[in-house]
């Protein structure tokens, strides 16, 4: 099996089993965003606020999210963003997920241009894999 952190980030990818252990072994910081209660843009922004440990000064909009994900001062040089229960969210909120994916992929490209890695990893809602 190919180790996901051996190669560069490539769009949205399925999170490997034991992603947190693998990330630690490759010195990759992990932040988790839970989509199980996201139903609109406001709750989506709150999920990122919580998952990324942002302050209330976070702008709650697409530009602010992009800025946070691409700011070298606010994120690790090697960051895995674990999107928990994302596939179900994508099925429920197709238009909103399309907007989010555009921002995430743009942030991933911008991070790469800065010499940084931003993995976007989807983890399914399964009590056996959720560790937080």
TrEMBL record:
Spell out the InterPro entries in the cross-references.
Barstar, Barstar-like_sf
Q: What name appears for this protein in its UniProt entry? A: Barstar (barnase inhibitor) domain-containing protein
The record's similarity note reads: Belongs to the barstar family.
- The highest taxon in the source lineage is Bacteria
Every Barstar (barnase inhibitor) domain range = 29-122
User: Which Pfam family is one of this chain's hits?
Assistant: Barstar
């Amino acid at each position: 099996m190919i180790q996901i952190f051996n190669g560069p980030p490539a769009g949205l990818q399925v999170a490997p089993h034991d992603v947190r252990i693998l990330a630690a072994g490759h010195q990759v910081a992990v932040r988790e965003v839970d989509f199980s209660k996201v139903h609109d843009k406001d709750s989506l922004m709150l999920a990122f606020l919580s998952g990324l440990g942002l302050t209330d000064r976070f702008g709650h909009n697409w530009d602010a999210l992009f800025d946070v994900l691409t700011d070298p001062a606010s994120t690790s040089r090697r960051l895995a963003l674990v999107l928990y229960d994302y596939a179900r969210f994508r099925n429920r909120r197709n238009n909103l997920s399309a907007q989010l994916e555009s921002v995430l992929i743009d942030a991933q490209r911008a991070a790469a241009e800065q010499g940084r890695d931003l993995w976007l990893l989807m983890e399914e809602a399964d009590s056996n894999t959720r560790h937080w």
